[in-house]
Each structure stands twice: as C-alpha cells, then as structure tokens.
Automatic annotation (TrEMBL):
Part of the ABC transporter FtsEX involved in cellular division. Important for assembly or stability of the septal ring. Keywords: ATP-binding, Nucleotide-binding. Residues 8-223 form the ABC transporter domain. One of its GO terms (cellular component) is plasma membrane. This is Cell division ATP-binding protein FtsE. Belongs to the ABC transporter superfamily. InterPro entries: AAA+_ATPase (IPR003593), ABC_transporter-like_ATP-bd (IPR003439), ABC_transporter-like_CS (IPR017871), ABC_transpr_LolD-like (IPR015854), P-loop_NTPase (IPR027417). It comes from Spirosoma profusum. Transmembrane segments: none annotated.
Amino acid sequence: MFSSEPVLILNHADIYQGTKLILGDVSFQINKGDFAYLIGRTGSGKTSLLKTLYADLWLQNGQGQVAGYPLQTLKPRDIPQLRRKIGIVFQDFQLFFDRSVEDNLKFVLKATGWKKQDMNNRIADVLMQVGLGTAQKKMPHQLSGGEQQRVVVARAMLNEPQILIADEPTGNLDPVVSDQIMQVFQAINNAGTAVLMATHNYDLLNKYPARVLRCQEGQVIELKG
Ligand SMILES: Nc1ncnc2c1ncn2[C@@H]1O[C@H](COP(=O)(O)OP(=O)(O)OP(=O)(O)O)[C@@H](O)[C@H]1O
C-alpha cells in the first residue's frame, strides 16, 4: 500500500572513495515500505554506497535523492536535516557508556530540537518498538550485546525516519540475537519505514526474503527473486 512513494533514488550514480571509483553507474529505487538487502564480498563497496546515501561521501557523478534531499546538490548545512530523515545503524554500537539508555536517547532528541515535555513519551515509544520497554534507566553495560543494538535501533527511530540504513547490524551477534534484531527490523518495516540493510548473513536472506541488491565488480545489480 506504500509502494508508490520513493524514499531513495539513485540514477547513474558513481560512488567514489577519494579519487577511486568504487561502484559505477548505480541506479535503483527504494520505495516507502520496501525492504532491501545489500550484499557483496568484503571490499565490494557496500559501506561506500551507504555512506554516500547519508552524505558521508559526496555524490560526484549522477543523481541521488534520499528522503527528498538531492544528494548531488546537497549543501553541508543540509546534512543534519537529511540525517534526521534517515535512521542509521552500524555494526558497532555507539552508545555513550557513561549514561543511561534514556540519556543516550535524550541526547539525540535535544540535538534535534525536541521539546522537553515530549521527550519521555517518544523515548517510551521507541523502546517499546524494539521490545525494551523496561530498559529506560539501565546503563548500557547492564544490557547484552543484542539489547544494546536494539537501543541503537531505537535511537535511529527517534525522529521517525523514512528509511532505516543499516550496515552489518547483526555482524557481532549470535544467530538467536541476530534473529531478534531482524524481527525488530521487520516490525519497523511493516509499520511503513523502508529498510536498506548491508549484510553478510545469508541465513537472514533465506529466512526473511526481500529484495536483494548485490555489489559486484564495480556495479550494483538487483537479483531477481
Ligand atoms: N576511507 C577510504 N579511503 C580509500 N579507500 C577506501 C576507504 N574506505 C574503503 N575504501 C576502499 O573502497 C572499497 C570498498 O570498500 P567498502 O568498505 O565500501 O566495502 P564493503 O563492501 O562495505 O566491505 P565490508 O563487507 O568489508 O564492509 C575497498 O576497495 C576499500 O579498500
């Protein structure tokens, strides 16, 4: 029902690291409600592609649009707004270990201009969404690796992103815990947020089938299901 609205468009995009072309002539689209995996060997360019989408790498050739922001003409001052419309999750949890779960989430809400009276409700909502409704006051070290990663996902959802971009989100987690993270992603996706997830974990692809984009020999190709 959401499938007609594009949240990500790449059109003949070239992905560079410095002067080195990593992926050439990349064209694909992700619509609201889509779930897509990004696969490919180590060094094939998955991370470089994702970094281009959240403007950590500049798009030098071709066109790109993410959450309505054109990447090829993006100004540095637009980057924070773009990143508010994208949820970003990496393999290594980057929580502040010297503050509670709640304070980790508040840090983002403060930085993105939320009113104080709205913060507690939003924090409760996102923690509920990732199945950690009672973790508010806990310190990160009191949580397991999988729970910490779920806090990271909750943090990425705070500003109701149009798309969640995840780079190896289950990379350090065992199969059972990876599965839990995946179920959280599925629930987020079912609620209408698009998901683009780079992974080496082919078990997940079999268990949770979705679109598959593969980085291979300097190109991105979509595998036909
Ligand atoms: N900061 C950088 N400067 C120059 N080249 C880089 C940089 N980061 C990555 N590269 C190169 O870009 C290519 C693609 O790397 P990238 O990290 O995007 O691949 P990947 O598919 O994400 O790999 P992995 O599965 O190991 O995460 C590699 O050849 C890598 O050596």
